[in-house]
Amino acid sequence: MPEISEVRITSEFVTRRNRNRKIVDVEYLSSNKLKEVENINVIGKTLSATSRGKEMKLLFDDEPVVITLGMSGGFKNFETPSDNSNKYWKHSHIRFKMDDGDYFNWCDIRRFGKSLGKDWNENRGPDLFDDVEGFKNHILKNIEHRDFSKPAHEQLMNQKWWNGIGNYLRAEILGKWEQNPFQPIRNLVQQKGFLDHLIEQVHWSYKLGGGQLYTWMNENESAIDFNLTWNDWMQYYGRRDKIKDKQKRTFWFDKKWEKHLELSK
After folding, report:
1. Which end of the chain has less Cβ packing within 10 Å, N or C?
2. pLDDT tens-digit profile of 88-106?
3. Which fold has domain 132-264?
4. What is the mean pLDDT of residues 72-76?
5. Quick one: which of 16, 42, 20 has its CA closest to 95?
6. Which residues have C-beta within 8 Å of that of residue 130, sequence separation ≥ 6?
7. What's the distance, Cα to Cα, between the start and end of the chain in Å?
8. Cβ atoms 243, 251 nearer than 8 A
C-alpha cells in the first residue's frame, strides 16, 4: 500500500487541488526523503502530478521529480497551520505554503516514500490505465520469459510485468479468477479472459476510491463509484486462508487450493 489506484488517485488530487494556485514558500523538515524536490526552486510554481503504476511524477511547472509513496505517503491540504496533535501535520516532511494561504503538505507516517529521479523507471511495465494495449502486449510478447514459469502468487507483484499491482490486488485478482493461484502464471495468462479480468479488477479498485487501508486515505472526491462498496468488492484480502510468500508478504487465498501449495515449491 498504496498500489496503482491509490497512486493515481493521489496524483489527481495533487493536480486538482493546486490547479489555480502557486507555491509562495516552503519548509523542508530534516526528516524529508523527497530530496530531489529540495534541488528545485519551487517558489512561484504550480504543483501538479501524473502517475505510472506505483510511481508518481510531481511537476513544478515543467520541472519533474518522480517519487514513490512508500507504505503511507500522500498529500494533505490544511487551511491553517496545525500542530503535532494532528498526526498528518506532525508527519508532514514538506510544507508548501500556497498563495491562497493554505498549506499543502507531503505527509508520510511510516517514512518509506522517497524521490527517485526525474523520469519513470524503465524497468517497470506499462501502466494499466494509460496504456492498456501496451500492458497486454508487454506480457504476451514475453510470455516465454522464465518469470512466467513461476507461481502466479509469487509473480503477480513483479513490477517488471505487473506495474502497480501490490498485495491486496494480488489477492483479489487471483481469488476472483477461481483458479489455482500456485500454478505457473503463464498458465493463467494463456487462459481466455485473464488479462481482461486483471485489468477490470484494477479499474474497480480505482472506481471505488482506492483501498483506504492502514494510513492511506482518498483525498480526491471525484474518484468514487457508489454503485458498489469497497467491502462488497474486497472478498479475499485479509479474509481467507493465508501464507507467507518467499518475500515474507502475506497472501490470502481460497482454502480449496491449499493442496496445490506444496506442488508449487
Report:
1. C
2. 999 999 999 999 999 999 9
3. Helicase, Ruva Protein; domain 3 (1.10.8)
4. 93
5. 42
6. 52
7. 27
8. yes
Structure confidence by residue, pLDDT tens digits, 124-150? 999 999 999 999 999 999 999 999 999
Given a contact cutoff of 8 angstroms between Cβ atoms, the answer to whether 102 and 81 are in contact is no
What is the CATH code for 4-117? Answer: 3.20.190.10
Secondary structure (3-state) at 144: coil
Q: DSSP 3-state assignment of 192?
A: coil
* C-alpha cell recorded at residue 55: 510511481
Asked if 188 and 170 touch (Cβ cutoff 8 Å), the reply is: no
**pLDDT above 50 (res 53):** yes
Write the single-letter amino acid at 182: F
Instruction: Enumerate the CATH 1.10.8.50 domain ranges in the chain, comma separated.
Output: 132-264
pTM for the whole structure: 0.93
In one-letter notation, the amino acid at residue 127 is D
Give me the amino acid identity at 222: S
Sheet holding 47-52, edge to edge: 47-52, 55-60, 63-68, 114-117
